[in-house]
Design a protein that fits this description.
There is one protein chain. By secondary structure, the chain is mainly beta. Helices cover 5% and strands 37% of the residues. The structure holds coenzyme A. Coenzyme A binds next to β22 and β23. The site of coenzyme A (COA) has 14 residues, from β22 and β23.
């Protein structure tokens, strides 16, 4: 597997004295080793982010691991030949692993941590700890527009997540899930090669 460390993108920009461009428009997407990330690209801890060959990420994506909040630094891995639309938002308190050939539409949020929610007035939520749970998205999934994927969710391979879904629980392989909270409405039946209603 050929991985591109996002760190290399960022380092490359700094080496070229273009650090200002990190948060500004470039006329062309920055291409390196056949992956491309359009700017502006909002990123922190790029050393914790890997992207596979052939993956394309459109502008205004935000990819932020939060190692300072947890014991083990969270890794964000995006596989090969994926496509991620405008304003993809990936916030990682725990690992977020996305397989190969995954199509992510625009305005999708994937977040692997929660703030603790003890309503004591002395300690506001903003100062409480966080709880974390990793997220996995299998190979060859299609995540529709404005989907939200919450901590601890594992989406199996070959799944379709309908536009606007809020995915709170894991989804088995080869399922179509829609709604808030997302429910599986169809599963692929390999014996007759059709999606069957659940
Ligand atoms: C889920 C989707 C792929 C359709 O899958 P499908 O298997 O063909 O679904 P159907 O059209 O047969 O609909 C099945 C049921 O789910 C409902 N449904 C379909 N998509 C839905 C969605 N996104 N949210 C909620 N309900 C949805 C339908 O209304 C229908 O309900 P009913 O049985 O009560 O009539 C499609 O609706 C969708 O959401 N596509 C994403 C579009 C998108 O984001 N495009 C960006 C391009 S990358």
């Amino acid at each position: 597997m050929f991985w591109i460390k996002v760190m290399d993108f960022v380092k490359n920009m700094y080496d070229r004295g273009k650090e200002k461009d990190l948060l500004s428009h470039l006329s062309e997407p920055l291409k390196m080793h056949e992956a491309s990330i359009e700017f502006p690209f909002i990123v922190s801890h790029p050393e914790l982010i890997s992207i596979g060959r052939g993956t394309q990420i459109l502008s205004y994506a935000r990819v932020q691991p939060y190692p300072e909040l947890v014991d083990k630094p969270p890794l964000v891995s995006i596989g090969q030949n994926c496509f991620m639309g405008y304003r993809t938002c990936i916030l990682a308190g725990a690992d977020i692993t996305i397989g190969n050939n995954v199509l992510v539409a625009s305005d999708v949020t994937i977040v692997s941590h929660n703030h603790e929610i003890n309503p004591r007035e002395t300690i506001p939520y903003i100062r409480q700890g966080i709880s974390i749970s990793p997220i996995e998205i299998g190979d060859n999934c299609w995540i529709g527009d404005k989907v939200m994927i919450l901590p601890g969710v594992k989406i199996g391979r070959g799944c379709v997540i309908g536009a606007g879904a809020v995915v709170t629980k894991s989804i088995p392989d080869y399922s179509i899930a829609v709604g808030n909270p997302a429910r599986v409405i169809k599963q692929y039946d390999f014996s007759n090669e059709q999606w069957s209603k659940k």
